[in-house]
């Protein structure tokens, strides 16, 4: 019952997201049709056609009705720049962002959790302070600066990593899943270029992964530390100690298991900040994902694209966050 | 102990940049937007080819780099103060009302906050900018809207705790009005966590606005805002890397300062919140 209630609360939020994205075009000061058409809008025929295709000639409530029914049918309109449907524009780029985000998250977890454990186990010592200061520094790093520093160090000075893009321009890869690491392992690609494209794609992932994963890593390290400290204070840990178990077993077998629940929750709820990270990281590294696409759409005043992008991202974030929330309550019945 | 050292360091950084910002006209050697033709991309003092007139060199258009950094500090504090005062007053007000009255008004306010929170911070700011158009004032407004939920959620949860305390019952029994209870009785008791959130809010505000500047959607040239300075200098990252690294370093230091300060204040003012 409780979970159902939580689930039902989703709908007003989703409705609000639709409403907000609906108004993106309608809140623009001035006439959106003229803004979209520029000088071509002086031709009354073109003007009327655009107005009609945007549905702006109807009263506002039926405009919203049409918009909602379009949303339900998966029709978010067409991009003004490319003329392709927003859905296909979005989902052809989404894998690039997802691939990068997954790498960044794995990077953050693989480093953040052990560092947090190390700090918690050595509470109050030099290591604890050192790691926690490091995490505060990582947390305060503006991504757009950090990314450029990484480029400066690894690409410009050391010349070991590529500067931008997803793969070397030498390779052309027929898009299949749009996950470049998967696509570069297709049979035809390997028979033609061997593992070159795959390795090139991996190399292109290194710097963006670090740039995007640093802040989540710092947050996870702090979170792991405090969660571990809490668990290490509990009675059953004392029991385990009294039984003479080794420190290693206590930390990894008994404590970490329980400390992980809040860590996983926080990680899951990071999706929103990951997308913020993606918008900046993709801009720095010319990564062809949705972050770069949204920024380009704003610069090109492609309002249907902004509208659609906002709607899809907002919906995704809400759905993911709410599922994690429900999952969290489901595994912790005491919290209800 | 080290926490206090950290906080002292934070206070030091923040006051350093604050003083620089306040006294910018006295510290800067040149006007930040004066262009010295023919004198573009003069290197800073530690590089060969530097000129004593321009201590940190000049940017790609021939403007004194040091003076621009100094004025950038002023802009950052202007951004921080504007964003935080807008988001704090609106956010706190909504939080007080939602937490105190609960029921339907709470549902409406929190529904609105949930919608705001559905959008990643920069994305929401981008939406606001795409409607209002780029520019410093709009970027400030956008960052402020993005930060409202932090204040509302914090204040609401604090008010809900305070409401169950005896002093609230005592105030109710004297027949005091809700307005009086909220502002005179409850509000003073939630000030400490609010101060912590405000400090951290500065860091968030400066980061978001600089990020918008970096994306070309915030402050516009020739304003010496650190975010645009950094993005403008990107094409010269190989030939004049300092034009990119130093404005970023300033942003980073200010963020670090506010974060250290906020962390320290949290430990001092509100041991319950200690992570």
Structure description:
The complex is a heterodimer of chains A (336) and B (275). Chain A is an all-alpha fold. Chain A is built from 16 helices and no strands. The longest helix of chain A is centred in the middle third of the chain and has 37 residues, at 196-232. The radius of gyration of chain A is 24 Å and the shape is globular. With 275 residues, chain B is mostly helical. Chain B has eleven helices and no strands. Chain B has helices spanning 2-22, 24-27, 65-101, 103-118, 121-132, 136-163, 166-173, 178-186, 191-214, 226-232, 242-269. In chain B, helix 9 runs antiparallel to helix 11 (242-269) and helix 10 (226-232) packs antiparallel against helix 11 (242-269). The mean pLDDT of chain B is 88. At the A-B interface, helix 2, helix 7, helix 8, helix 11 and helix 14 of A face helix 4, helix 5, helix 9, helix 10 and helix 11 of B.
Mean pLDDT of chain A: 85
Gyration radius from CA atoms of chain B, angstroms: 22 Å
Counting DSSP E segments of at least 2 residues, the number of strands of chain A comes to 0
Largest sheet of chain B: none
Strand content of chain A: under 5%
- Mean model confidence by pLDDT of chain B: 88
Quick recap of the structure?
The complex is a heterodimer of chains A (336) and B (275). Chain A has 336 residues and is mostly helical.
How do the helices and strands line up, and which of them pair or pack?
The complex is a heterodimer of chains A (336) and B (275).
Chain A: H1 2-8, H2 10-26, H3 32-37, H4 44-54, H5 60-72, H6 86-121, H7 126-139, H8 143-157, H9 180-183, H10 187-193, H11 196-232, H12 235-242, H13 247-268, H14 271-284, H15 290-299, H16 303-331
Chain B: H1 2-22, H2 24-27, H3 65-101, H4 103-118, H5 121-132, H6 136-163, H7 166-173, H8 178-186, H9 191-214, H10 226-232, H11 242-269
Helix pairs in contact in B: 1-3, 1-11, 3-4, 3-6, 3-9, 3-11, 4-6, 5-6, 6-9, 7-8, 9-10, 9-11, 10-11
């Amino acid at each position: 019952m409780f979970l159902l209630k939580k689930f039902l609360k989703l709908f007003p939020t989703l409705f609000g997201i639709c409403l907000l994205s609906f108004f993106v075009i309608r809140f623009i000061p001035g006439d959106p049709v003229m803004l979209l058409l520029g000088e071509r809008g002086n031709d009354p025929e073109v003007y009327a056609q655009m107005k009609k295709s945007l549905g702006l000639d109807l009263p506002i409530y039926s405009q919203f009705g049409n918009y909602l029914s379009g949303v339900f049918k998966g029709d978010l309109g067409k991009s003004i720049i490319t003329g392709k449907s927003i859905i296909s524009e979005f989902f052809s780029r989404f894998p690039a962002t997802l691939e990068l985000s997954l790498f960044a998250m794995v990077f953050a977890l693989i480093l953040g959790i052990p560092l947090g454990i190390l700090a918690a186990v050595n509470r109050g010592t030099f290591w604890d302070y050192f790691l926690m200061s490091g995490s505060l520094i990582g947390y305060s790093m503006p991504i757009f600066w950090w990314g450029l520093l990484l480029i400066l160090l690894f690409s410009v000075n050391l010349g070991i990593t590529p500067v931008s893009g997803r793969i070397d321009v030498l390779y052309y890869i027929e898009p299949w899943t749009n996950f470049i690491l998967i696509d570069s392992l297709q049979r035809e690609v390997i028979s033609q270029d061997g593992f070159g494209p795959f390795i090139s794609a991996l190399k292109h992932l290194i710097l963006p992964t670090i740039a995007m994963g640093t802040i989540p890593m710092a947050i996870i390290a702090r979170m792991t530390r405090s969660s571990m400290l809490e668990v290490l204070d509990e009675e059953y840990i004392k029991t385990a100690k009294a039984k003479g178990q080794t420190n290693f077993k206590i930390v990894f077998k008994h404590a970490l298991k329980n400390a992980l629940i809040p860590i996983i929750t926080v990680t899951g709820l990071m999706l929103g900040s990951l997308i913020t990270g993606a918008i900046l990281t993709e801009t720095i590294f010319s990564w062809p994902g949705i972050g770069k696409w949204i920024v380009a759409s704003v610069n090109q005043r492609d309002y249907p694209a902004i509208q659609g992008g906002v709607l899809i991202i907002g919906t995704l974030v809400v759905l993911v966050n709410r599922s994690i929330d429900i999952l969290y309550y489901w595994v912790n019945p005491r919290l209800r | 102990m080290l926490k206090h050292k950290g906080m002292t360091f934070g206070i030091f950084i923040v006051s350093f940049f604050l003083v620089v910002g306040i006294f910018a006209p006295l510290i800067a050697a040149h006007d930040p937007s004066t262009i010295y033709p023919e004198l573009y991309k003069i290197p800073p003092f530690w590089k060969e080819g530097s000129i004593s007139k321009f201590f940190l060199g000049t940017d790609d258009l021939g403007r004194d780099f040091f003076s621009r950094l100094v004025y950038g500090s002023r802009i950052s504090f202007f951004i921080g103060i504007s964003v935080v005062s807008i988001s704090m007053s609106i956010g706190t007000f909504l939080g007080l009302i939602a937490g105190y009255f609960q029921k339907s008004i709470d549902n409406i306010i929190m529904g609105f906050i949930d919608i705001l929170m559905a959008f990643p911070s920069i994305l929401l700011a981008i939406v606001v900018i795409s409607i209002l158009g780029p520019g410093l004032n709009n970027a400030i407004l956008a960052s402020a809207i993005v930060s409202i939920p932090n204040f509302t959620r914090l204040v609401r949860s604090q008010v809900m705790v305070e409401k169950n305390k005896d002093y609230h019952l005592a105030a109710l029994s004297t027949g005091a009005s809700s307005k009086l209870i909220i502002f005179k009785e409850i509000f003073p008791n939630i000030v400490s966590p609010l101060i912590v959130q405000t400090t951290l809010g500065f860091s968030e505000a400066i980061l978001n606005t600089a990020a918008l500047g970096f994306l070309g959607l915030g402050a516009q040239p020739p304003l010496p805002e650190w975010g645009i300075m950094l993005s403008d200098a990107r094409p010269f990252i190989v030939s004049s890397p300092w034009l990119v690294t130093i404005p970023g370093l300033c942003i980073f230091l200010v963020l670090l300062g506010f974060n250290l300060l906020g962390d320290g204040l949290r430990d001092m003012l509100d041991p319950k919140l200690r992570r």
